[in-house]
Amino acid sequence: MKKYWMPVIMLVVFEAVGITLWLTKDNLFYLFNFSYIGCSIALGLFLLIRKHPQARRVVQLLVGLYMLVYLGLISGENMQIEGFWYYLFTGVFEAATIHYAVAKIFGPLLFGRGWCGYACWTAMVLDFLPYKIPSGPRKKIGWIRYLTFAASLAFVAILFLTHAANLERIMFWAFIAGNVLYYAVGIALAILWKDNRAFCKYICPVTVFMKPMSYFSLVRITCDKSKCVSCGKCLRVCPMNVDVLDNSRKRQNGTECILCMECVKICPKKAL
Ligand code: SF4
Ligand code: SF4
Ligand code: SF4
Questions:
Q1: Contact 45, 18 (CB under 8 A)
Q2: Could you give the CA distance from residue 44 to residue 118 in angstroms, rounded to a whole number?
Q3: CB 117 within 8 A of CB 258
Q4: DSSP secondary-structure letter at 106?
Q5: Distance CA 81, CA 73 (A)
Q6: Ligand 3 atom at minimal distance to the Cα of residue 272
Q7: Which of 18, 140, 221, 237 is most deeply buried (CB count within 10 A of its CB)?
Q8: pLDDT per position in the chain (272 positions), as tens?
Q9: Which ligand is nearest to the Cα of residue 200, counting in written order?
């Protein structure tokens, strides 16, 4: 039973967040929302422990589709980074601000870039592409993420500074346009560089929040050197080019680990 502690902890954490927000904001939706996400993640982790080959895909689809289709398209909440800036500027702790606080700013202190491996609706589509293992080393163009980060902030700031009318409507269409752009760029780069996660490595603005926070992540993959035979299989399958054999927090691409467990699955010595 000990091996199931992780799904239980994740469920408890999400229920605690849901109950707290339900009671403090007097809105039952938060209980439903975080219970659904917590159950989906706990189910995915349970399947992962049971070695189900599609465990990660199951939770990616359950959470990703819920956020994209239900929260974004049906409920009209901009859940992208522009939505986060929008609610921040209006001074309201709602929708995207809560989502960012839990999944992308404070959550990574506990579960690192787990969002990227198990819940992101952009990666949910990119992971269907055939280039799961990058065809070459990383390119030194990670600085692009800071430009897209600044552009998203500037976009919303300009809307507020110019007192644009129908802000809610603009944010809804910005969510649709933003997602179409993300998918188009993400798929094009994946095909061009034969790397499903090229968009995540170089373009995604959200990583500006997640990378520094996930440096301190409680949950991380480490290597038991006494078992490792240095076969290098784990390094070859990693979609994010993480030097998982180095246990230090400063390891190469350490803040890029999405906890996908591909390295753990392939290790012949169960050293990870
Ligand atoms: S890096 Fe960005 S696009 Fe990629 S999985 Fe994470 S949040 Fe999604
Ligand atoms: S393969 Fe291992 S080191 Fe690489 S991202 Fe997945 S869990 Fe992290
Ligand atoms: S796959 Fe396992 S044994 Fe091989 S290098 Fe990685 S940790 Fe070591």
A1: no
A2: 8
A3: yes
A4: S
A5: 16
A6: 7
A7: 18
A8: 677 888 999 899 999 999 999 999 899 999 999 999 999 999 999 999 999 999 999 999 999 999 999 999 999 999 999 999 999 999 888 778 989 998 999 999 999 999 999 999 999 999 999 999 998 899 999 999 999 999 999 999 999 999 999 999 999 999 999 999 999 999 999 999 999 999 999 999 999 999 999 999 999 999 999 999 999 999 999 999 999 999 999 999 999 999 999 999 999 999 99
A9: 1
130 and 262 inside one domain: no
Are both 91 and 206 inside the same structural domain?
A: yes
Domain that holds residue 224: 220-272
| CB-defined site of ligand 2, < 6 Å | 221, 237-240, 242, 244, 257-263
66 and 128 in a single domain? The answer is yes
Q: Are residues 199 and 257 in the same domain?
A: no
Q: What residues line ligand 3, using a CB cutoff of 6 Å?
A: 223, 228-234, 245, 267, 269, 271-272
Please tell me the number of the ligand nearest to residue 240's CA: 2
Considering only CA atoms, which residue is closest to atom 6 of ligand 2? 260
Q: Tell me which residue has its CA closest to atom 3 in ligand 3.
A: 228
Q: Do 227 and 174 touch, CB atoms closer than 8 A?
A: no
- Quote the pTM value: 0.94
Residue closest by Cα to atom 6 of ligand 3: 234
- Are residue 208 and residue 226 in the same domain, yes or no? no
Residues 272 and 197 reside in one and the same domain: no
Helix (H) or strand (E) holding 7: helix 5-25
**How many distinct structural domains can be found in the chain?**
2
Gap from CA of 261 to ligand 2 centroid (Å): 6
